[in-house]
Amino acid sequence: MDIIKINNISVSYGDNKVLKDFSMGIKKNGITAIIGPSGCGKSTLLTSLNLMLEENGGSFTGEILFKDKNILSYPKNDIRRMIGMVFQKPTPFPISIYKNLTYAPVFYGIKDKEKLNEIVKNTLIKTGLYDEVRGNLNMLATKLSGGQQQRLCIARALTVEPDVLLLDEPCSALDIKNTANIEEMLLELSKEYTIVIVTHNLSQAKRISDYTAFILDGQLVEYDETEKLFTSPSDIRTKQYIEGVYG
Amino acid sequence: MDMDDRIRDYIFKIWIAFSAITVISVIVYIFGYIFVHGISSVDMEFIFSQPKGMPIGTEGGIFPAIVGSIYLMLIACLFASTLAIATAVYTVFYCDNKRIEGIIHLIVKCMAGIPSIVLGLFGYTLLVLNLRLGRSLLSAGITLGIMIYPYIEVRIEKILREADKDIIDSSYALGVSKFHTLFKLILPLYKRDIISVITLAGGFAMGATAPIILTGAVLFAPVPKSLSSPIMALPFHLYILTGEGISLEKAYGTALVLILILLIINILSIVLTITGKEHN
Asked: Does B187 touch chain A (CB under 8 A)?
């Protein structure tokens, strides 16, 4: 079942058209990877899904359905709560780890201290940070290592119980060990959440994703099960890209 | 580097050194001069008692003026920062129309260019006469607030404009509203910088004389009991003591106290900025 359906959207920033007549469905749970060369529109696609596009000065035509309802028919804040996002560069708030994780729940009206503690604990466990930071919850989040910061950002996105998690090259600023940590965690999370990850790293897409979409110049070239797309791509351009002819 | 460059470099260094020495000597001279002439009249009695003598001010102290100046600063800061924060938040986070933003910037710049005595006249006409606030602590405080408003607005706007865009986006991406993001995340994060700006502006307000001459400052008044009382203020007292030839000695004493208070305010502001940087 597709949790998100993208029907013929065109996205542009002013006069600059980034996605053209783009359609694609995203299956519930599991990991969908989006690959393609720089500037092909991958990140723009992600920001269209949670309406962050408009904060960056972009706009789209066409329709995007979330659980079979147009995303524009939901209040903007609800869409962003249900479709969480993690950015390329880790962006912890320069406040304590604890407050990073209670910031959004407090906004949504949770005041009970016990409940907040539980959210903090659960999200830290899910992101594998609990054992590393349990004694230091009042430490400034910006003092964590890069990998920990990124996992905290994922934990922060989970505090509002989203259905979908969008990740925009979450590992591009991290080393191999931290990348492995995050990949392992994403695999675990994909049992509960729908994960869409934009990545430059083809082997990462191959390692963790169930489905892969290849985008070129704002158009969907090929979208298939990851295994099939990487072993026997049906489009010559996909074949060239994964063989490293360009990109 | 050829000969010409070397000479240019040399001349430039002389220029810098000359400027630095001039500025530093002027500052040291002013402070030194006021200190030497003022210290003899500054003691506990001078700070904590009312002006006395005939004409008033030749004897006694300046306590009501110290308190008056501090009150004026507080009211000016409160009034100006409330408006300035609102303006800055609106222009940075809510205004989508470049033209409106341009108009706001133009108005703020024009306000910054208004001579302070004209502001005084404006305060006198609007607040004292038309709104019937009288020559009072409130009228003078608000007039000073109008004077420091552009100063605070420009700096807070700069702080907000340079606020980390990634952090703001991360907050929006959690579905958190703009209002909550601003008031629970961004403003608290830059709280120290903002307070530092306001404190500095407060010092500026405290030293200003022209806006309060017509709106509330008087030769003699007790420590103000309410917002509608006329008040004494340090710079005005200094002006009267010298201008009317009452007591040059007391005038230097007043100047010394004023400068020391401003020095404390400025140091406080710098400390806030530095600890703010460490905090972030």
From this structure: no
